[in-house]
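We keep the chain:
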Amino acid sequence: MPTTFQEIPRERPATPLLDRADTPAGLRRLGEAELETLADELRQELLYTVGQTGGHFGAGLGVIELTIALHYVFDTPDDRLVWDVGHQAYPHKILTGRRERMASLRQKDGIAAFPRRSESEYDTFGVGHSSTSISAALGMAIGARLQNSGRKAIAVIGDGALTAGMAFEALNHAPEVNADMLVILNDNDMSISRNVGGLSNYLAKILSSRTYTSMREGSKKVLSRLPGAWEIARRTEEYAKGMLVPGTLFEELGWNYIGPIDGHDLPTLVATLRNMRDLKGPQFLHVVTKKGKGFAPAEVAPIGSPATTKPDPLGAPGAAPAKTSGPKYSGVFGQWLCDMAEADPRLVGITPAMKEGSDLVAFSERFPERYFDVAIAEQHAVTLAAGMACEGTKPVVAIYSTFLQRGYDQLIHDVAVQTLDVLFAIDRAGLVGEDGPTHAGSYDLSYLRCIPGMLVMTPSDENELRLMLSTGHHYPGPAAVRYPRGNGPGAAIHQGLDSIEIGKGVVRRQGRGIAILVFGVQLADALKVAQKLDATVADMRFVKPLDEQLVRELAESHDLLVTLEENAIMGGAGSAVSEFLAREGVLKPVLHLGLPDTYVEHAKPAQMLAECGLDAAGIEAAITLRQRLLQR
């Protein structure tokens, strides 16, 4: 196995078994003694594949053996295998007929980073956000029962994803309907128990065996005739298991808990899954794996080294992509958060498991008592902030745009309705690239601007971001600043903590005939286009409240208004402009440029912008076409 990024194979390794087992049908024709060798080949194949394309591989390396065992024991795709999140599903993709297409992973027109129903019959449920697998598999189990099909339903969920409330809602519901399904907890952080070894593997085999199950069911039939006897026996069994295995919580919820077992022990995995395959009712298997198994950097630092970047044309492994001149927007936020925390002791930072992505590492180290990572629980994060605001603190919720969608009800009812002082720092706004539509921040302007009392800001560069964060911090109510993934254009950043006037845009270039109203980071491209067309460019800054005075002035002095945003056109910032003009009875041609009414498929961000007509060339072409139509 390679031990450094430089040792990731540049050439496809020889894989004679994988050549025969790149579909589940082929896999099931192998003998059990061959599975260990297949696991080694699959691990090498995954490293080679992701080494070519870039992307996440730590989670996938940890489930090599589990993936093989699942497809070996269950009759996929007829049996429904549901993966939670998606990075752990790369081995699944390789084993389900997509091995030769893995070179296109996360590339334009290539296969997706996550399981996707339209991509393969083996992808039984589309995945993007975490913690959905148990609910989906439960629905499939109920559907199978209604159809008398006999299909199995299996959900594979990580210990991190299990922290979300949605997962527990499904765990609570399944026993209520006595669903025949299997949940596999892929515990790759040993967050529940470190009790893994020969004894726990042995106990798992015993507790999942047909002999034990038959004895248990037989005893139930006999004892159920005696008042209270079965309940006493059940409690005795539960307490005995609780002393030996850490599954009391799941047993209390009504699941038959087995484990923990070693997730890299293929014979034990296969034997246990076979034992559990035909058990009735909700079954829960606890499997402990090592994230990044077989690749030293990812084993040592599973959080910091779960992925690699695509090599450059010279073949340098792990080479970073070319960057623009400015710092990352998330880095600007992280620095501002520390600076404002120094100045205002009321500030607290909250994140739903996105410390590294949202650049909260420095804040968490400098202000640990004011830093709160609530795990994958976006709804809780928002209402936690609301409760803190009730007590006079100044919460800043650092959250990705696509994840804030999960806390929308709480944003409205727990924060906005009560006019609470919470600032939302919304990262990954707009198109995010290779992760595709499930992770794109396409709708936040639309779903935020309809909420009464919200302050909604769209910075055009790094300095504007810092100014708006301070503005939102001082605003007495709910405020949001949305900014994109990646680097800024290199604007000079004022290091103070000044605010800007709320609801006021700025004209960045004065022209004639055409006025381009920019909401966000498309300002640089708008200025390029304006130079060619001699157009006026306004950096609108605020979506809510809209600078209505500036909109009116531009409408009165120009022939065509163009709104520009990296958000869905429907209900977005451009809609706010048209709504104002209609309300005021101002008749003026308006061209709305933004994200189309479709899901934009994964590609490089620049490719996605070009596809949507939001790069400089697309903006110019759209304006020129509209001018021609108006001149007819």
In short: The two ends are 68 Å apart (CA to CA).
